[in-house]
Amino acid sequence: MSDLMGVINLDYELDQLNELTYFRCGAAVPFAGRYRLIDFVLSNMTDAGVKDISLFVRRKFRSLMDHLGEGRPWDLDRKRGGLFILPPDWNDPSDTSHGDLQHIRNNLDFFNRGSAKYVLHVGSQHISKVDFCDVYRYHKEQGADVTLVYTKVEQLEPEHDPCLRLDVNEDGFVSSIHHERDHSNVYMEMFVMEKSFFLEQVRHCIAHGDSYFFRDAIQKNQHQLKIAAYEYKGYHAVINSVESYYKNSLDLLTPENYNSLFKDRSVNTKIKYEAPTKYLDSADVSNSLVANGCIIGGTVENSILFRGVRVHKGAKITNSIIMQKCVIGENAVIENVILDKDVNLPSNRMLVGDVKRPFVIAKSSTL
Predict the structure, then answer these.
(1) Sequence-separated (6 or more) residues with CB below 8 Å from residue 351
(2) Highest-confidence segment of 92-96, 146-150, 180-184, 271-275
(3) Which end of the chain is less packed: N or C, by CB atoms within 10 Å?
């Protein structure tokens, strides 16, 4: 959609996944066997026809840049527009901005050169299949200053605690933005705003010494702005802790959840050409998600295996997430565990975590 330009703002997102974010930012964390968290919001944007997308990153972004490249899997490797990965580059001695406003202020060229009239601003921690064309249509119909995307959560979990909540009146407008934990209207860190108004608010916030756009331009002025609320009703997961990552990953082993996330529209990711998974005569695999390139000779139950995992004969993996190119030795036992990339687990070793607090092994570890 030529009327929308996208901003994926990772500047304010903390690396809260412990060992999984030792060497990468949260948006680059692998998910669902072959994807990264960033893939879902990026695919939603490109499905809506957004062709100009900037990515605000501040730390641990090498893995993310390697994954995204020039944006070819999302058709963003273009001569005009496309994907712009914008790490910190603070060279203006007169700059007094802070927080994510500093990122916006130092990359005004992205906004000024783009022909789109509206800004779609999102984060990476909310996994969903939001139709941004429908959000844009709703924003126009409501005649709002800004439209926030939210979802009604049937069962509140600990990962929802940090999320903002919205009170929405019968006309579809926000009457209050707050942090009441028992409230089910969870704000999904997505909003649409006219570009000229967006930049006007940026200038105003910087002039008044503010630091974060949503908090200082929208939340603090919620009673002065006309804020519409778009309700999203599809698949939704929040990934902001190891526990939420583990729970929502294994939830995808339920066909209903998997189909809700992947069936209607594809999710694009970096392409890697590998042979199909090879199952040896001794292999026993049930209710698991297994990517290509694996060689399995042991038992795998209720687990997710990423590309290139080797499971030797006699090994048993249960309720676990095994990331790319891990090697599980003979007769090793793994239960309620997350192994990051390139972990080598010797033969006859046992790793057992708790179903609510999985045991996590950092990338490239040898035990």
Answers:
(1) 332, 333, 334, 335, 337, 345, 359, 361, 367
(2) 146-150
(3) C
Residues 323-360: tens digit of each pLDDT: 999 999 999 999 999 999 999 999 999 999 999 999 99
Element (H, E) at 217: none
Chain centre distance of CA 197: 27
CATH topology (fold) of 4-262: Spore Coat Polysaccharide Biosynthesis Protein SpsA; Chain A (3.90.550)
Residues sharing a CB contact under 8 Å with residue 94, sequence separation 6 or more, in sequence order: none
Q: Which of 271, 272, 273, 311 is nearest to 290 (CA)?
A: 311
Taking only the tens place, the pLDDT of each residue in 277-296 is 999 999 999 999 999 999 99
User: Which tens digit of pLDDT belongs to each residue from 307-318?
Assistant: 999 999 999 999
Query: Range(s) for CATH 3.90.550.10 in the chain?
Result: 4-262
Q: Please give the sequence-ordered ranges of beta strands (E in DSSP) within 218-323, or none if there are none.
A: 227-231, 236-238, 278-279, 284-286, 289-290, 295-296, 299-301, 304-305, 310-311, 316-318, 321-322
List where CATH 2.160.10.10 sits in the chain: 278-361
Question: Residue 53 forms beta bridges with which residues?
Answer: 6, 83
Confidence of residue 95 (pLDDT cuts 50, 70, 90): confident
